[in-house]
Amino acid sequence: MLLGDRESVLLRVEGLDVAYGQAKALHEVSIELNQGEMIFVVGRNGAGKTTLLKTIAGLMKPAAGSVLFMGENIGGLRPENVARRGIAYVAQDKKVFGQLTVRDNLELAAFAAGIKLEQALDIATTVYPNFKERMNVKAGGLSGGQREILLIVRALFTSRRLLMIDEPTEGLASIVIREIFRILVDMKQEERSAIIVEQNLGIVKQLADRIYVMKEGRVIKVISNPSDKAETAGLESLL
Ligand code: ATP
User: Fold this and answer.
1) What integer is the mean pLDDT of 178-188?
2) pLDDT at 7
3) Would you list the domain boundaries of the chain?
4) Helix H or strand E encompassing 102
């Protein structure tokens, strides 16, 4: 897909500035996502990756710049109004409704997404068959990896147009990282539009249509052809 092809541009963030009080966290950040692409944002701690996703999700207000989604500036809209446009955001904290069962967590998300429970359970057990035996387990009793998968599945219900995931594999055991990688591969095959913040460069290089490298609140590099080894050479040194 050609960058700048106006027909297929889903999201265009332009010149985005965001601040926490007086402290500026993003400086003139611009990124672009075409329909059906999976793009990755990488960078050291504090680079501004989470702030970027939060701003697109409506949890932070831009101080300047725009967040054009399907041609409309959604920058500064309330989170529920962003979600209504089919945009879902999985935060970094892996927080589920711990006192509720897996099934209840899925049911709540299905209700919010306006899909039938049967359909929701079907999606959940297709994405992660292990949920079949865990439907009546309290979500708080799941492993960190299973909680993350539950959150991704819930977001799949509502992300009709765009799914954003913040550090899906952070702090997880390698066995469950492989599960999450498999889920991301499936999402890519289904051409789901996605923005993923991820530090595992092995995953990033295999799945990214484009990589944005952030540092100190700015995009310092855009790798537009991640399958080209020459383009990703030296990426590690930037993180
Ligand atoms: P990490 O990988 O550690 O989550 P990040 O790249 O996602 O890092 P952000 O969390 O977006 O970075 O943080 C960007 C900058 O904003 C950092 O300087 C951080 O200290 C600051 N920041 C983040 N959250 C807040 C907050 N709630 N209040 C004040 N400053 C914040």
Assistant:
1) 95
2) 55
3) 9-238
4) helix 102-113
Tell me the mean pLDDT in the region 181-200.
96
* Nearest CA, atom 30, ligand 1: 20
**Into which CATH architecture does domain 9-238 fall?**
3-Layer(aba) Sandwich (3.40)
- CB neighbour list of residue 31: distance below 8 Å, 6 or more residues apart: 11, 12, 13, 39, 41, 52, 195, 212, 219
Which residue among 22, 49, 197, 239 has the greatest number of ligand 1 atoms within 8 angstroms of its CB, and so is best to mutate?
49
3-state class (DSSP) for residue 220: strand
Q: What is the pLDDT of residues 45-54, one digit of tens each?
A: 999 999 999 9
Q: Tell the residue nearest (CA) to atom 2 of ligand 1.
A: 45
Prediction pTM value? 0.93
**DSSP state letters, 109-146:** HHHHHT--HHHHHHHHHHH-GGGGGGTTSBGGGS-HHH
> What strands lie across the sheet with 218-223, from one edge to the other?
87-90, 162-166, 194-197, 38-43, 210-215, 218-223
Of residues 62, 3, 64, the one with CA closest to residue 32: 3
DSSP state of 59: S
Tokens 């949890």, located at residue: 59
What average pLDDT does range 91-119 have in this prediction? 93
Residues with CB under 6 A from ligand 1: 20, 23, 25, 43, 45-51
Rounded Cα gap, residues 194 and 215, in angstroms: 21
